[in-house]
Amino acid sequence: MLGIGTYIKQEAKALRVQQEVKLMMEQIDRRAAMIQDNQTRMLNSLLNRYKEKLVIDRIVLTAHNSTRLITDPEELLRTCHLQYDALKKKRIHGFDNLTPEWQQTYDPISSGRPI
Hints:
Layout: H1 2-37, H2 39-46, E1 59-63, E2 66-70, H3 73-87, H4 100-106
């Protein structure tokens, strides 16, 4: 009896080691394929760079002296384009109205000008 129990344990351990080796080899192959096929993903993984998804679950609309908070998902889908249209408008940067001191700071550096 002891011999059979020991044999079963040895076979179970061998099978477990075989499965672990197979899993490791599959992961190594998948990683090698990623290095060849998708280098951006590989670099992001190595550098721990992950993009968080932007989730919009509410919008505040202000119109005609009234403010409204929209949280209903279906209404959000219908009105979210208004928010993006507002974000795409042209900005007033004011670079044309710099003081002479700041103008000199932002002027291109010529070869004769000290840094």
